[in-house]
TrEMBL record:
Lineage top rank: taxon: Eukaryota
Region of interest (Disordered), residue spans: 1-32
UniProt keyword annotations, A-Z: Acetylation
Family membership: Belongs to the histone H3 family.
Name of the protein: CenH3
GO MF terms held by the record: DNA binding; protein heterodimerization activity; structural constituent of chromatin
C-alpha cells in the first residue's frame, strides 16, 4: 500500500471577513409578513391587466357573440371587483384554516367558505 499524502489545511479567515460574507438570517415567516404588509399598503391591482383582459374576452366569447368590445374603464372596474371578491374569499378561507388549527390554506377551506357565503351555490 502506498502512503497517503496530507495536504495542508487552508487557514481560517479572520472573524471580520467571516461576518461580511455571511448573510443575516431572519426567522421563518418574517419575509411573508413583510410581503403582506407591503401588499396591504399598496393600492395597485394584483392581477396583471393583459392576462385578465384576455380571460374576460375569452369568457365573453363563450357566452355571448354580441358583446365584442369592452371599454378600458369597464375592464378595470371588473378587475377591481374580481380582486375584491377573491381577497375576501381568501381571508375567509384563512379564518377556516385557523379554526381547524392549521396554518396552511387548503382546498376544503375555500369550499367551506363558498358554501357559507353562498358564492357559487350549486342549488
Amino acid at each position: 500500500m502506498g502512503r497517503v499524502k496530507h495536504f495542508p489545511r487552508p487557514s481560517k479567515p479572520a472573524a471580520s471577513d467571516n461576518q461580511e460574507k455571511r448573510k443575516r438570517r431572519s426567522k421563518p415567516g418574517t419575509k411573508a409578513v413583510r410581503e403582506i404588509r407591503k401588499f396591504q399598503k399598496d393600492v395597485k391591482l394584483l392581477i396583471p391587466y393583459a392576462p385578465f383582459v384576455r380571460c374576460v374576452k375569452e369568457i365573453t366569447n363563450q357566452f355571448s357573440s354580441r358583446v365584442t368590445r369592452w371599454t378600458p374603464e369597464a375592464l378595470i372596474s371588473l378587475q377591481e371587483a374580481a380582486e375584491d371578491d377573491l381577497i375576501r374569499m381568501f381571508e375567509a378561507g384563512i379564518l377556516c384554516a385557523h379554526h381547524a388549527r392549521r396554518i396552511t390554506l387548503m382546498k376544503k377551506d375555500i369550499e367551506l367558505t363558498r358554501r357559507l357565503t353562498g358564492i357559487g351555490r350549486p342549488w
